[in-house]
# Entry
Amino acid sequence: MKIVILNGSPRQGNTVTAINALKQGIKAEHEVEVIDTYKLKIGPCKGCGACGCQNGCVDKDDTNPTIDKLVAADLIVFGSPVYWWGITAQMKLVLDKCYCRGHKLLKKKVGLIIPGGSPIDEEQYRLIKGQFDCIAEYLGWEILFYEPIYATEKDDLEKDTAELEKLVQLGKAIG
# Structure
């Protein structure tokens, strides 16, 4: 299985810790690639329509190579900290640019890891989950897991052995 993990965090904190715990549990026979969205050079979608939802983006940036990797993946994991009640801008740019190959991203398996500085029953987690539920319904995605994580300080997750073990077990449960 080819697994692409999108890291939406521009810093080395709880999201990276969560991704690493998930990776620890994933069986060695799977091919795993982590894409750090903050390193990508992707401009916003201009809504030009030239892509026709399948031809790729006309922008000469990292859009097409990144979306090609998502199209080729059997599982896409979105890992993003909560920023202002949503995912990071870096992650949102990638999601918006998925439009350029939307028809080729049908019926994907996906997972969500969402660390944030508020308790997990707060509104921002429901907003993020709701956004991905809408995308999943539209594209026929199967959300295999959704893991909101309460971690206020940059290193909080490193100290939460129960949550780390839960993430390792999520990784082990992947095909």
Notes: The mean pLDDT is 96.
